[in-house]
Amino acid sequence: MANKLKESKKRPPMFLLTRGKKRPSSFLSLRPQIVSSKKQLSESVRSATKDSLWISYEKDLTNDLMRFASKSNSHLGNGLLIHPLDMNSIPTLTSLFDRLAFKANGGFLPPHELAEVFESENRSDLFIGSSVNSDTETITFWRGDFRSLTVPFSTFNNSGDGTKPDFEECAVIDSGLTVQLGDYEAAVEAILYEHDLEFRRRLSKKRLQEDQSFGASLRRLRKQRGLRREDFEPGICAKTIARIEQGKVSRVQKSTLDVLSSRLGVAPEEIESF
Questions:
Q1: Does CATH place domain 2-103 in 3.40.50?
Q2: Which superfamily, per CATH, for 211-273?
Q3: What angle do CA 108, 196, 181 make, to 5 degrees?
């Protein structure tokens, strides 16, 4: 009982702004305070702390939240707004929240998967939603700790079977583990590895502790690029790739390294760094 009480005290307050009857059940594990009226909203602002979590599905309640919080000079914590948003309200919202994730032309995970991410210890390494900007050819991803990560379209190369990413059909799926672009899929881990230096260092350290071989590095890089072993043919047959990855080749020839580096898009000496 004491442990449960201790965990309860550590959990930051969560306020769920919604009038949907089924939605609250998806967030039960987070013990949300359901807010569906101005009166409840006013009371919630007064009880909020600097580490509170706000999730709003209702535009009018978000607008009322801004009014109440601005009048009382409240600092609300982190906010997730899953509804159409007036871009003119962004300056006010960013002054009220430490971190803010909002819907522009993208979307977020369904409620039960959002709850799963927010409960996860590695939520900062999971995505909860995305927003595509076709003018700048970039995608902004929102992470489980509400930090954003913006990456260029060029991050997503055609997969080994020729599947092309469809940036008009962008979604985060699999409880924050996968980005879907039409029929094309990319692992969130691979995106973070390429664009987040701290994540890459942390993961590389872990991988080095687990397996430091050239074959293991080749396998990780091949999968990150979405390539099959057969995709290195005719330069290198699939069986040879398998033997290298399994550590059965004691010395990789220069000609083989040249084919690998060309297909993987990295310098030969960089393969072992993955």
A1: yes
A2: lambda repressor-like DNA-binding domains (1.10.260.40)
A3: 40
The pLDDT value recorded for residue 212 is 67
Question: Rounded CA gap, 187 and 180, in Å?
Answer: 9
Give the Cα separation of 167 and 174 in Å (integer).
18
| 114-195: CATH topology | NE0471 N-terminal domain-like (3.30.2020)
Q: What percent of the chain has pLDDT over 70?
A: 93
Distinct helix (H) and strand (E) counts, the chain:
11, 12
CA dist 6 → 11, 123, 129, 143 (Å): 9, 21, 31, 27
pLDDT over 70 at 155, yes or no: yes
Cis bond upstream, residue 234 (ω within 30): yes
What's the residue count for the chain? 274
Rounded Cα distance between 122 and 177, Å, is: 11
pLDDT 10s digits, 129-143 = 999 999 999 999 999
